[in-house]
Amino acid sequence: MNTGNAADTDTFCPASFSATDHADSEANAVAYPNMALVKYWGKRDESLVLPVTGSLSMTLDIFPTTTRVSLEPQSSADSVWFDGRPAPRHIRDRVERFLALVRERAGRSEHARVETTNTVPTGTGLASSASGFAALAAAATHAYGLRSTPRDLSRLARRGSGSACRSIFGGFVIWHAGAGFGADGDDTSYAEPLPAGPDAALVIAIVDTAPKTPSSRTAMRQSMTTSPLYLPWACASRADLLEMCVAVADSDVARVGRIAEGNALGMHAVLLSARPAIRYLSPLSLRVLDRVEQLRSAGVPAYATIDAGPNVAVWCARSDEQRVVAALHEIEELLSVRVAHPGPGVTVTSSGRS
Ligand code: 2P0
């Protein structure tokens, strides 16, 4: 089941990137995070954000990010506001680099004001950079008057944050690793929605909302350069992706879950074997994994996946989600338990003509 993806809307013009003869002076966009069922972990080119392996995710229907981009022709610099406050420097720098890329493509020079509101805790491994850069890519292209197809938009969002390319689309989404480097790599590495998928849920056990360290970007680099398990994991992940495509197409919830859990725990094995070791999992994360095993022993096909943080998402059939929620609620130390279903792709909610 794929829900409303960007390709289904008339938000984007069916042409590759090109400047239009008019721009909206401001645009608002809404995007949702995604949870990878086969993970992206490692770049073959850091500046173009080309991944070593392809990945596959489900866009969620909770925790949206809303971003407004307003052109400010009188300003001498961009300003970036994050949840009503000036953004921290590391976020501002990334957003400014991204806007510079959009301006270059649009042949424009005006600076912009960017206001972002997140409903997902930032930097906790709950994919705020995915929804954040997907929303920014959509709002900025509209504000600066760039025509783009959804596929082009996914390539652009990828440059802000790799996983953001998947949040351009709703439902189940594959991000092709692509081939080669430079322009070839850029052209062939994009996200695409899958035509079908299981009627499933991800029940998210929120273990901790403090920002994680190190960042995904740093941890990926450290994994690639120091972990003896990185290459074996990357090879296995390629096989996981092929098998996952079949399992999603067959709507086989248990098979999707088995592949997803193995792929995620493999990624954490890579992290633990990096030097120095990177340990995102906490004792409470492991208790959630225990609970998931108990559920399986009791006949509920539930499987865990964990991103770059301690929070655990439990994959299950929608018909089993209340049993999973009840089991997780028994763990009193969890901060909260949230249920996500396949959600929509990015949308531009309003824009103003200049
Ligand atoms: C994923 N993660 O596939 C993997 C699994 C976290 C664990 O993509 O460096 O914020 O900005 O491209 O996309 C998180 O990393 O990294 C991520 P950059 P991103 O969802």
List keywords for this structure.
354 residues; alpha+beta; Ribosomal Protein S5, domain 2; Alpha-Beta Plaits; six-stranded mixed β-sheet; four-stranded antiparallel β-sheet; 9 helices; 18 strands; 36% helix; disordered N terminus; binds ligand 2P0; diphosphomevalonate decarboxylase activity; Mev_diP_decarb
Question: Any chance you could write out the topology, listing elements then pairs?
Answer:
Blueprint: E1 18-19, E2 24-31, E3 34-38, E4 43-45, E5 50-51, E6 55-59, E7 65-72, E8 79-82, E9 85-86, H1 89-106, E10 111-118, H2 128-143, E11 146-147, H3 150-160, E12 172-175, H4 182-188, E13 191-193, E14 200-206, H5 216-226, H6 230-249, H7 253-273, H8 283-297, E15 303-306, E16 312-317, H9 321-329, E17 336-340, E18 347-353
Parallel strand pairs: 8-10
Antiparallel strand pairs: 1-11, 2-7, 2-18, 3-6, 4-5, 6-12, 7-10, 8-9, 12-13, 14-16, 14-17, 15-16
Helix pairs in contact: 1-2, 2-3, 6-7
Ligand 2P0 binds at residues 36, 39-41, 49, 55, 129, 161-163, 216-217, 307-308.
